[in-house]
Amino acid sequence: MSAFEITETDSTQLEYERAVILQDLANLTTLRSTKLNNILGSRSSAATALSSQNNALSGFADHLLNEKIVNSIFLQTIAMGSSSFSEVQVASLESIAGQCPLIGGEAVLQARDMLTLVQPAPVYYNDDIFCNASPRPEQRSENKLPTPTGYINVFPNPANSQITIQYDLHNNSNSRAQSFCTKGSTTRV
User: Greater confidence, 155 or 73?
Assistant: First the structure.
């Protein structure tokens, strides 16, 4: 008998080990499928709950409407494990991505990120052009908030680190201003 010869006993043992390994693989595949279905079910439930919250968002400012649209598309696709968008979703994302982030808000940047999943080549967005073509926040009359004693104008909106506050007080009235962050804490004025 040579060193490379396999006996019938060896062959039987190898066949048995092969069957055990195949059974273990089948068990692991079933376990994987079960866990994956549980994850997808949880993801679907969470996306449905978040969709309800997103639909309840109110406001008509550009950045709020953009946020609602981008969130909705995200929850219908990426949150559900899909990286493909319908033609309508792509058109909506492209419309938002082509806005000035200072006017359209963070959703503009999120739309651009989401579009990278479906665009064949990188797209460069020239915000200098987008923002200079859009009316600047300080030029938009909807940013002026009337008060009983005058008006206040805050820009840019949204802002990252610095804002400008213009105000006009009628009747030389006593007034006090406070600013709050998005979490509700008072900020330095």
Answer: 73
**What is the rounded radius of gyration, in angstroms, for the C-alpha atoms of the chain?**
29
The rounded percent of the chain whose pLDDT value lies above 90 is: 34
pLDDT in tens, 45-63: 888 888 888 888 887 888 8
Residue 134 phi, psi dihedral angles, 5° rounding: -85, 150
- C-alpha angle 74-75-77 in degrees, rounded to nearest 5: 65
What b/e sequence results for 26-58 when a residue is b if at least 16 CB atoms lie within 10 Å of its CB, and e otherwise? eeeeeeeeeeeeeeeeeeeeebeeebeebeeee
Mean pLDDT of 104-127: 91
User: Is this structure's pTM higher than 0.90?
Assistant: no
How high does pLDDT run on average in the chain? 81
What gap in Å lies between CA 168 and CA 150, rounded to an integer? 5
Query: How many CB atoms are located within 10 Å of the residue 115 CB?
Result: 18
Cα 31–chain centre separation: 31
